[in-house]
Amino acid sequence: MDDSQTLATWDLRITFKGLQLIVPTSPLHLLMPRTTGTMKHVALASYDKAYETKGSTELEGKDSTFPLDELDVKIFPAAGDSFNPTVPATIFDFDKHPKKVRKRARLQAIGDKPGNLLNGRVRLQKGRFYNTAAGSCWSVEGGSEQELTFEVTWLIKNVSAPLLDWTATNMITDTATSLPQLHPIKGLLELTIIHGPEEEVRTGIHPKPVVNNPPLHLHAYDVVLNSHDHVDLILKKEKGPCGTTDAPAIDKEGFPLTTTYSCMIATAPVEN
Fold first, then answer.
1. Mean pLDDT of 106-127
2. Structural domain boundaries of the chain?
């Protein structure tokens, strides 16, 4: 690949999956709440191995991964399209929940020293939300049923750097961490950032929650939201979307990849 090809503009697509709270500030923050106990979550970046090699012209179809636990990741390309932090309406908004106490992310969670609130964090200052994917059917506090978003894709167009410009600092030790050097292929680089149970990260299948019971690990949001007033998000239907009779086959250990269940992605503004 010659210099003219290397410096041609390209698009960056980042897909976020799992337990993540979007705070639509500038820069945009994606917070990964710290979890404990039997449903401990881990943070991970995943991408095609071919992106690691400068000059690659085809994807290999083999995933490489990099742990992001305790890391504050900045993806700040010097060039790229404009910034639009507008959050899609399909993403659950804690601040719009009808309970008396509105839930907003702690200032500490988006500050320089988030402490033990988070497993990880990603910040973005270019691009916009590009796509979302709805998961299984839930109800909120026993109310109307809806499909809650478990996956969202962020798009930065017209990046002109020769490789992905991302940096990381350990939030506990405040030391820099080297990240893989990734190069676009045919005008595109695709990255997935997952924050899920260790079992999901290892096997690709989330542990199956219990129908009609709120998954306890969603209480991890309460710490970041500085709230003791928990919003119960209750799984109502594990087979197919709300309002249908679809019943795809379910793996004995969890949801099928065709209708992947994963932790809910949510949003909230920063507290006043």
1. 93
2. 3-267
107 SS3 class: helix
pLDDT band per the 50, 70, 90 thresholds, residue 205: low
130-139, 151-160, 214-223, range with greatest mean pLDDT: 151-160
- Is residue 61 helix, strand or coil? coil
Measured in degrees and rounded to the nearest 5, phi and psi for residue 157 equal -95, 155
| Side chain identity, residue 230 | H
- Give the length of the chain: 272
Nearest to 134 by CA among 93, 91, 95: 91
Contacts of 82 (CB under 8 A, 6+ apart): 126
Tell me the H-state helices in 160-272: 198-203, 220-224
pTM of the predicted model, to two decimals? 0.88
What phi and psi, each to the nearest 5 degrees, are found at residue 156?
-120, 115
- Do residues 110 and 23 lie in contact, with contact meaning Cβ atoms separated by under 8 Å? yes
Phi, psi of 170 (to 5 degrees): -70, 125
SS3 of the chain: helix, strand, coil, percent, to 5: 15, 40, 45
- Rounded CA-CA distance 136/149 in Å is 9
Average pLDDT in the chain: 84
Q: Which amino acid is residue 17, in one-letter code?
A: K
Residue 75 identity (one-letter amino acid): I
